Amino acid sequence: MDVSFVGGPSRQRGVGVVAPFDFALDRELWRWVPDDVSLHLTRTPFVPVEVSLDLARLVSEHRTLSDAVQALSAVGPEVVAYACTSGSFVGGTLGERAMVAAMAQAGAMPAVTTSGALLMALEELGVCRVAVVTPYTKSVTDSLETYLAEGGITVSGRSYLGLTREIWRVGYRSVVDMAREATAGRAAGPPQALFISCTNLPTFDVIPQLEAEFRMPVLSANQVTVWAALRRIGKEAVGPYQSLLDPVARRAVAAMATAPPPLPPVPRPGETRPGAPETAAAMAGTPVPSAAEEGVRGEAPADAMFPEFPEFPETLPGEPGGGPAAG
Predict the structure, then answer these.
(1) pLDDT greater than 50 at residue 272
(2) % of the chain with per-residue pLDDT over 70
(3) d(Cα 16, Cα 2) in Å, to the nearest integer?
(4) Most buried pick, 219, 220, 234, 272, via CB within 10 A?
């Protein structure tokens, strides 16, 4: 069969990625990448340390980053991204900028980090107050909050798991539970967005549902990393129904944020809304129309307009397994 007319594979634009040695979510990164872009990943050397501030410092040493970027240079990427949240916020905003400079110098190309990308994404969305979800210990989570404060961002609430290993095994249900806890915190005012930290924490499928529930943009570590790297080469990340990436989703979330809260469900026979007095019909024993019956008469029941949040699997089919996890 003559295939000479095909002309070879289409040209791919390259994005280099330096990830911690234990990074396990390669396929999630790819889900944000358009078809004409390839990711070229390399990892930092193994160190026998669990997730901690010490590990974050070890996987972000300038010599380590320079060696990784030089290795990636062999395949000619147009930009390089350091895909580790804790490794890029542990030194504060000055430390993050120094990392970017070291990588750019080693590879003679633009460079971004996850934590730097986060601040860029928050600026893009006009956000200065966030709720934060992390899988980290308290000390690592505190370091993230310090970094955000240096970047002019207030943390309104937070939730963390306290894990020191195998972070990629965390299921979506745990992410949802933490998100609800973090967004409930209002000490510094209501959050304008939610950030889910750690590049080893799965988030892709849960972002649209969380945005619908909380009526605010939801950012994740891998999402902002790919978004920022692609912007450096004039490309756009793909991610349906994600406010950072999808203008339609951004407008929808903005509209929901200013809309009045949903009405409570219509009481069923013999029931009353919490805190409301019983109706005369209910007290007299007269049947009260159900929500479904109201819908039949042309008025959609409240729970149909605002369905309950879906159940998420604890893990996705085929999730990788292994040792500790930084990110």
Answers:
(1) yes
(2) 77
(3) 35
(4) 220
